[in-house]
């Protein structure tokens, strides 16, 4: 099914590319684009088959995301984030999945995982209040996954949960006016006070242990993979896609460029430009290959019913953050050598440069922290982190 979705998406790419500048300037993705991606099946690729999803190979999903991001990173970012949430909902109790998809399997979910919400235990569940930032694509979603801390009797946090909240329980405030990924409309979600029934919460500890309620109804290997692999890869994939698109545009434009200084001549004949292209292409390829390799190994182990070793989980995070780091280095190199024309707003190289840098500051792309975790693991030290 992944190949069918990819073919459908490729037919949409020319129109998405034409809308890229408008998407950037308007700070939101056109509703038409969301409808087209939904019709192509993008948002159902990682959704459980029992609830109308395709249960696709994650490698296929990330490839779709990269190709969308190559023509418009804001669109690819929202496709990736909204597309990965059905996977996480598949980890929740069956009733939570029924609440969301029971009437419409195309219902979409946004998120903001920072544990800034406050949960107070009450009969049958929790009372929630809080304000969350950076909920990408929230205006295209009817539910939200939000991070929150359970507060005990003495006012201290006792547990970290992800809670599922319907659109009727929160409001969206337009706060998104930024340098890159402008079209993602990653606005604030505000919950004054809402009741969250017990079946709409997921303990982050259980998720990290790969033992979650949703596995009882979704037994496929996809739902035995680590959040720290699936979600973080969904953050790096758009960045790699944007840079690959910027690379393709750079090569096409610079191939015909004639230098007006430094002795003139064709830009393509400059050995320094040739080396820059080689370095950028190698970094992009290496990142994709490593990430795909890790995801395939994770899925193979899960399919065989085998335990996923912490070494592989750490390696996956290592290569994921390095993928983002390499992508940013590649677009920096291209941007630096593209000349003054790269400064013009709206051109693909400039937009890829802005979007890649914006994506790189997501918490999932905290390079030093992820590499330090890998180093701790290599030394045999204990590693405790929800993003492994």
TrEMBL record:
Sorted UniProt keywords: Monooxygenase, Oxidoreductase
Acyl-CoA dehydrogenase C-terminal domain ranges (all copies): 236-365
Listed Pfam families: Acyl-CoA_dh_2 (PF08028), Acyl-CoA_dh_N (PF02771)
Highest taxon in the source lineage: Bacteria
Domain spans labelled Acyl-CoA dehydrogenase/oxidase N-terminal: 7-101
Keyword Phosphoprotein belongs to the record: no
Signal peptide feature range: none
Acyltransferase is among the record's keywords: no
A GO term, aspect molecular function: monooxygenase activity
Alphabetical list of CDD domains matching this protein: NcnH (cd01159)
Family to which this protein belongs: Belongs to the HpaH/HsaA monooxygenase family.
Protein name: Flavin-dependent monooxygenase
Organism: Streptomyces poriferorum
